[in-house]
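Severity: low
Component: inverse-folding endpoint
Summary: output formatting inconsistent between runs
Steps to reproduce: submit the following structure tokens with default settings.
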């Protein structure tokens, strides 16, 4: 059975400092879900735990007290709204979420490829393409070595331009051999984490698109499960997301059996609002 696009598990609200768009509210996000027949959406504002050292100046403001403001919203009864976050991995491979805070979220998005924050996620001396490829592997390996509830962890931005904002992200990906990807994705499948699909399928030439698709095809062969995330920070980004998701399904020939599914627990912040 063909993969059914019925969710978006990576969306920012105005509470994310890189959004701060007054129109990007939980209500607007739920309206997007209703319009596009999405049964589940997740709020994933940027987050760094006050109990974890090492936050950048920017991330110091992105604490739990800030992002929990979304919990005052009452979602419509035909949309399952999840409360999540997007945390960070710094240059020492330290995650910005404490063990005690893991239970506060339905879903936790972790990008290991945010190599655009020089001094925080990467040293200036590590800017070469070769070093970025090495760090790509080491950072993902480090994440998979953590003791985490991987059943609610999403690994995001695996082919993102943020790997090298100078335009070299495809060169970085091409330097990682198939066998290395196979080993990493086999571990992701074994851990039970989700692999995010969020790239813009219309932004590449045919040749470049193949470079983007290669890691995901390897992940499919290794038994990984996939979810979609728009990573939208503004309402206009939501408008085209469903079309992009459907195009990715076609490109990868994804099946429903390859879907990563979040189980909303009884203690979920929005579980008090049952779906009808």
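Observed output (run 2 of 3):
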């Amino acid at each position: 059975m063909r993969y059914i696009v019925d969710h978006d598990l990576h969306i920012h609200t105005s509470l994310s400092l890189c959004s701060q768009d007054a129109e990007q509210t939980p209500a607007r996000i739920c309206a997007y879900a209703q319009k596009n027949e999405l049964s589940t959406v997740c709020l994933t504002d940027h987050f760094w735990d006050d109990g974890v050292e090492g936050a950048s100046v920017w991330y110091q403001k992105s604490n739990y007290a800030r992002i929990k403001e979304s919990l005052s919203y009452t979602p419509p009864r035909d949309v399952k709204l999840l409360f999540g976050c997007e945390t960070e991995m710094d240059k020492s491979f330290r995650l910005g979420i404490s063990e005690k805070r893991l239970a506060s979220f339905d879903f936790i998005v972790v990008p290991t490829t945010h190599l655009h924050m020089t001094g925080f996620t990467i040293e200036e001396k590590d800017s070469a393409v070769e070093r970025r490829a090495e760090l790509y592997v080491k950072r993902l390996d480090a994440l998979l070595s953590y003791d985490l509830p991987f059943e609610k962890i999403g690994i995001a931005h695996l082919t993102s331009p943020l790997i090298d904002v100078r335009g070299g992200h495809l060169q970085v990906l091409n330097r990682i051999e198939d066998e290395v990807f196979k080993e990493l994705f086999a571990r992701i499948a074994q851990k039970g984490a989700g692999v995010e699909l969020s790239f813009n399928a219309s932004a590449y030439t045919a040749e470049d698109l193949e470079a983007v698709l290669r890691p995901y095809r390897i992940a499919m062969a290794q038994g990984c499960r996939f979810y979609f995330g728009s990573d939208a920070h503004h309402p206009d980004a939501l408008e085209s997301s469903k079309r992009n998701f459907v195009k990715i399904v076609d490109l990868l020939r994804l099946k429903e059996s390859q879907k990563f599914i979040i189980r909303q627990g009884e203690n979920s912040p929005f579980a008090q609002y049952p779906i009808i």
